[in-house]
Amino acid sequence: GCNDSLNSRFDSRFDFLTKIQMEQDVESTVTVRQPKLPKQTWDDVPKPLQDRERTKQKIQRYVRKDGKCNVHHGNVRETYRYLTDIFTTLVDLKWRFNLFIFVLVYTVTWLFFGFMWWLIAYIRGDLEHIGDNQWTPCVNNLNGFVTAFLFSIETETTIGYGHRVITDKCPEGIVLLLVQSVLGSIVNAFMVGCMFVKISQPKKRAETLVFSTNAVISIRDGRLCLMFRVGDLRNSHIVEASIRAKLIKSKQTKEGEFIPLNQTDMNVGYDTGDDRLFLVSPLIICHEINQHSPFWEISKEHLAHEELEIVVILEGMVEATGMTCQARSSYVASEIKWGYRFTPVLTLEDGFYEVDYNSFHDIYETNTPSCSARELAEVTARSRLPLTWSVSSRLSTQGLPDSQEKRSAAAEELAEQNGDVANIESESKV
């Protein structure tokens, strides 16, 4: 009974997906969108159909090539937290919204205090005694809302043309003048400070920090390494520049917990100090693939089927302003080229070094084994076995009886291993 229910459920889901596929194959102006099925449902779908659907999906980046994070925050209910940090909220806004708020705050402030000056004049009766020389108004030459609005602008911006001036017979006007002066200073400090920080942000400085289009994997100093190139287009330097790299990949723990975007640090020299850069000319950042590397067991064939992303982060202080600048980029599996190296861009001219940025992204193919770093290390370890290593010593270490049959079997296995090493070494030389 359980098998019959599972088979019926599988047949219904398979018929549903087949029907959708047939509708998509028919030419029509209506686009049929497939529903997002949970992971458990995908396990029941035949593997050829799964592979066909996954190939249609576009590679989703966590960080785009321009450094912007491809993450949208939804269902944020505690929006009051943005208002508690209103200064940072205004700085993070786009320029059009920032300028709109800048103009709106000043305009509303001038209109509000202009209305207050007009209200004082209306309550005191100054508007009914316009032109009466025997009457002392609160503000001279204030005869309507327009003049009150102009007097509010003059008071808050401290222009003071002298035509409209407050008198000493208006205590409520003196209090309002003090309030507007203090509040106007606060508004000026807040808005001008916000605009200054907005203008001096080092985001545009990061536009002149470039990363290579592709990352490469090849042999360097006898070890398999993953490399990418960074450069600075400006003559002004990035002070205290440092670089980091993280691997973004889905992970399932031993307890069965699924982590969709697990972040793993990649060593690019933080234990030796190579991650601290003197970025005057383009540099090639190297990640050695060893036992602690997440690429330890990944070969060239496996890399083509991996769903991973490498996020690189370059940060430092701008020499001109002293503000911290950060540039980001990423590499997906299709942008990691196995068996390539970067073309040199630095040449020695008459008394100086010249960098050719036309070749900054260029790579060339080199002889690199297609096996994983773990397999390469095992082959290298075999090739370094001493020649005096005898069969009898091997049998004694394993605790086997020293018989002629065991000796011949061990000798045949050793000869077979040496043959494999020789074949692999000959292939790597070719």
TrEMBL record:
One Pfam family matching this protein:
IRK
Which Gene Ontology BP terms does the record give? nervous system development; potassium ion import across plasma membrane; regulation of monoatomic ion transmembrane transport
Please list the residue ranges annotated as the Potassium channel inwardly rectifying transmembrane domain: 63-202
Q: Where is it chiefly localized?
A: membrane
Query: Quick check: keyword Transport in the entry?
Result: yes
Which reaction(s) are listed as its catalytic activity? Answer: K(+)(in) = K(+)(out)
- Check the record and name the InterPro entries matching this protein: Ig_E-set, IRK_C, K_chnl_inward-rec_Kir, K_chnl_inward-rec_Kir3.2, K_chnl_inward-rec_Kir_cyto, Kir_TM
What Gene Ontology terms describe where this protein resides (cellular component)? Answer: monoatomic ion channel complex; plasma membrane
* MF-aspect GO terms: G-protein activated inward rectifier potassium channel activity
Membrane topology per the entry is: Multi-pass membrane protein
Inward rectifier potassium channel C-terminal domain sequence ranges: 209-379
Disordered: annotated span = 396-430
Task: List the SUPFAM superfamilies.
Answer: E set domains (SSF81296), Voltage-gated potassium channels (SSF81324)
Which controlled-vocabulary keywords does the entry list? Answer: Ion channel, Ion transport, Membrane, Phosphoprotein, Potassium, Potassium transport, Transmembrane, Transmembrane helix, Transport, Voltage-gated channel
For this UniProt entry, which segments traverse the membrane?
Answer: 99-120, 174-197
Enumerate the residues marked as the site Role in the control of polyamine-mediated channel gating and in the blocking by intracellular magnesium.
Answer: 188
Q: Where in the cell is it found?
A: Membrane
- Database matches in PANTHER family: G PROTEIN-ACTIVATED INWARD RECTIFIER POTASSIUM CHANNEL 2, INWARD RECTIFIER POTASSIUM CHANNEL
Q: Which family does it belong to?
A: Belongs to the inward rectifier-type potassium channel (TC 1.A.2.1) family. KCNJ6 subfamily.
Name of this chain's protein: G protein-activated inward rectifier potassium channel 2
